[in-house]
Amino acid sequence: MKTPSLPCLALAALLLSANAARADDTAAPRPLPLGKGSAAGNFIAEMADKHHFSRRQLRRLFQQVAIQPSILERIAKPAEAKPWHAYRKIFLTEARIQNGLSFWREHANVLAMVQDRYGVPPEIVVGILGVETGYGQNTGGFRVIDALSTLAFDYPKRADFFRKELEEFLLLCREEAANPQDPKGSYAGAMGLPQFMPSSFRHFATDFDGDSRRDIWRNPNDAIASVANYFTEHGWRRDETSAVPVTVEGDGARQLLDNDLKPHQNLAQLQAAGVKIPAGLAPDTNVKLLALEQPDGYDYWLGMHNFYVITRYNHSPLYAMAVLELGQAIKARL
């Protein structure tokens, strides 16, 4: 999965002008500093003391790690900074819908079994896999250890988070008997069809086939079940709606917009502010008012509990809405 709050995006093309023939040394991969007192050196010592890794083997491993400036460039430009109408165009494409339709048909039996077991409908799982990797077409080309090391030791803004994920990654590789130099993923270190971060893999990845392997890279069945398990563990409620569109009269409702993604607003409060509440919602339902920017205004939605659960995968309402709309578009084609 994708890191909470960090998107897992398609790799962007880096356009070089004709005048940029000379390589910029700052853009080239560079060795990870391992000297005494370095952040990486301290990390190695901690892993040895805390988890009984061999210091010599870890030093040998990290000598093969490269800091990637291109990763720092990409993480500084998240797609979630775009307005909704631009963000939506990235994922709600005819090609992605058609590929999602093919994926759903091919794995219909597994999706049905997973829905029965976990309560997560196929359109949610297919929407996630479509947004994250185009159903496995683009799982990322960075070595995970390079991505996590770059962000853990050369990105102070979120160094603590990525240092923890690097710790989880080394534990994951030891548990799964994998070579840490092999797995590839996104620029943020997210892995496989569902783009799980290492901590998510360790806690939520599922062996659906019973072959004693949790293969989210090559086994769509494991990936499907792992996404559903992730949502179940984060409180998904079976058979509940995730979000509903609403109309708004006047400007009063804009005062209720905030950054809290949890459903914390009551219907009476919203109605008094000019929100037309759809029929059928229980009066005591808590919701989150969403305003999605369009070229000529805003689309308004009420996010329910399950919408909040989707944002546990990526802490962005734009991401959650893209998942919902893509899944529904594919479902409508069946």
From TrEMBL:
GO terms for biological process: peptidoglycan catabolic process. The active site is at E132. Coiled coil: none annotated. Residues 42-328 form the Transglycosylase SLT domain. One of its GO terms (molecular function) is peptidoglycan lytic transglycosylase activity. Pfam families: SLT_2. Residues 1-23 form the signal peptide. Keywords: Signal. InterPro entries: Lytic_transglycosylase_MltB, MltB-like, SLT_2. This is Lytic murein transglycosylase B. It comes from Methylogaea oryzae. The gene is mltB-2.
